[in-house]
Amino acid sequence: MKGLGVLVSGQGTNLQALIDAQARGELGPAVLRVVVSNVPGAPALDRALRAGLPAVLVDHRPFGSDRAAFEEAVLDVLREHGVELVALAGFMRLLGPTFLAAFPDRVLNVHPSLLPAFPGMNAIRQALEHGVRITGCTIHLVDQGCDTGPILLQAAVPVLPDDDEATLAARVHAEEHRLYPQAVRLLAEGRIIRQGARARILAE
């Protein structure tokens, strides 16, 4: 089995999707070990506790601009819980070389757009402002850029004429919740091979 750590900052709906997928036996050899938040009182921590998972706060603020020290503190928690794979679920911090070197090509992120379109914050708002007809979500490996890592899985979501941020977000998030457990399973099964800026998924 492969220990999975989830990093969160907010509500944790993608965390909940992973918790539910594990209950259904859909994460393959991945097993949720710990949930770590950088935000005190993040609702995602309560979701973890309700699921019987360790929920650990590592507040980034006391570390100031020392990102490496913050990342080392998070890594200490992950190592303590036997984590081998990491999933970001609304984790609002860019990860640097200290963290990524500890989990090379073993960190996943989910983003609410069809990357490389609309990286960074407020992707759904950006899609609406640009008047696109199709948006969606992307699961990708994490590198040191902002939503620039190799793309693994994507799902398209139509933008309807009367959509606002809430209605569009609901449909995008539904696709995120469907795809993220699939990506975790692929990673845990060793079926993701990085090839430069791209990734290849091996057949079963």
Describe the protein in words.
By secondary structure, this protein is of the alpha/beta class. The protein has one domain: Rossmann fold (3-Layer(aba) Sandwich). 35% of the residues lie in helices and 25% in strands. It has 6 helices and 9 strands. It has helices at 13-23, 43-50, 67-80, 97-102, 123-130, 165-188; strands spanning 2-8, 30-37, 55-57, 85-89, 107-111, 134-141, 151-158, 192-195, 198-201. A 7-stranded mixed beta sheet has the order 3-2-1-4-5-6-7, sandwiched between helices. A two-stranded antiparallel ribbon has the order 8-9. Strand 1 (2-8), helix 1 (13-23) and strand 2 form a beta-alpha-beta unit. Helix 1 packs across helix 6. It is globular, with a radius of gyration of 16 Å. The two termini are 17 Å apart. The mean pLDDT is 97.
Q: What topology does this entry show?
A:
Blueprint (H helix, E strand, L loop, with lengths): L1 E7 L4 H11 L6 E8 L5 H8 L4 E3 L9 H14 L4 E5 L7 H6 L4 E5 L11 H8 L3 E8 L9 E8 L6 H24 L3 E4 L2 E4 L3
Helix pairs in contact: 1-6
Structural class estimated from helices and strands = alpha/beta
Helix count? 6
Would you report the number of β strands? 9
CATH architecture: 3-Layer(aba) Sandwich
In whole angstroms, how far apart are the ends?
17 Å
Major sheet: arrangement of strands: 3-2-1-4-5-6-7
Encode the helix/strand succession as letters. EHEHEHEHEHEEHEE
Residue share in β-strands: 25-35%
Helix content range:
25-40%
Largest sheet: 7 strands, mixed
Give the CATH level 1 class: Alpha Beta
- CATH-assigned fold name: Rossmann fold
Shape: globular
Mean pLDDT: 97
CATH superfamily: Formyl transferase, N-terminal domain
Count of structural domains: 1
Rg calc: 16 Å
The poorly predicted ranges are none
